[in-house]
Design goal:
This protein is an alpha/beta fold and 316 residues long. It is 41% helix and 16% strand. It has an 8-stranded parallel β-barrel, surrounded by 6 helices. It binds ligand G3I. This is Beta-xylanase.
Amino acid sequence: AVSLRALADARGLLFGAAVNHTLFDPNEPDYARTLNRHFNAVVAENAMKWAGLHNNREAFAFGFADAIVDTAVKNGQTVRGHTLVWHDSLPPWVYTIQTREELLRAMQDHVTGVVTHFRGRVRMWDVVNEAVSDAPGHPLRSSPFLNLIGPDFIDEAFRAAHAADPDAKLYYNDYNTDGLNGKSDAVYELVRGMLVRGVPIHGVGFQAHLNTDFDVRGAQVQANLQRFRDLGLDVQMTEVDVQLRPGRPEAGELARQAAVYRDLLRTCLSVKCAGFVTWGVTDFNSWRAGGRPLIFDDVYDPKPAFAALAQELAPP
Ligand code: G3I
């Protein structure tokens, strides 16, 4: 079958997948084979999160993340880094900190240590993930960082990342922000303010955890992505998956899933997006496994969504 990687390369599009080092296993040869044949970029699904790299305050544990990065570099794949500062997947020691100064220092040390370690190998980072809440008015989300440091934790995280690797592209990343809506308005104001303050931010990631009812046109994804492009920022779809709705005939759902993938990629290409990343490779290993949201099924066979992306990526 056609290689999505070759088609994406020809367009200069970063086409990636979230990976789990547990599946780099001789007993799972189809995993590495599929990843290498169809994707020119990878992101660690969990291995680069704070709890993954820095569970022990005194020492980083880079082993699993290094394995992912080394394999990607060997295979000529670009690596997205995910994620430096997030309210989730934090180790217990972070919650024991009680002063602004100590947490600010700890956050800066974490960002500096991780970005420095991967400098030259990880080309872009989700510096701050999901800092905007879903509550009415979309204020910043409660987290140790907001509550103890204050809203400037975001600027400070980006400044520390930029100082550690001035060549890395630095992203703000969030979900339910794909279309024009109150939450994407809040993200827009957040990053616009950062640019005004001279904070080193280069892009915005739109996670795109969707389901088959999502209407890419109706949600006005293009207009939304375009307004961020008009700020001079790169945009990427960073965690794409499209869940099937339960209790509906399978063939229709797979066709709707393919259409959502197609519409989203078409829209992404239309604004010259920098990347399109699916949140996993095969349905069985997805965080939403029951929803079969990816482009390869449980036995790594390409689904209708694969064909739709191949068609969309094909040369005009
Ligand atoms: O590794 C431990 C294992 O040792 C333990 O036995 C097991 C018991 O629960 O947990 C394992 O860790 C789990 C980890 O996934 C690896 O499977 C965590 O509990 C679980 O919380 C973690 O879930 C991840 C989640 O983020 C939280 O970090 C999902 O795999 C991952 O897909 C999901 O990804 C997020 C993005 O980072 C941000 N955007 C939303 C997206 C989906 O929620």
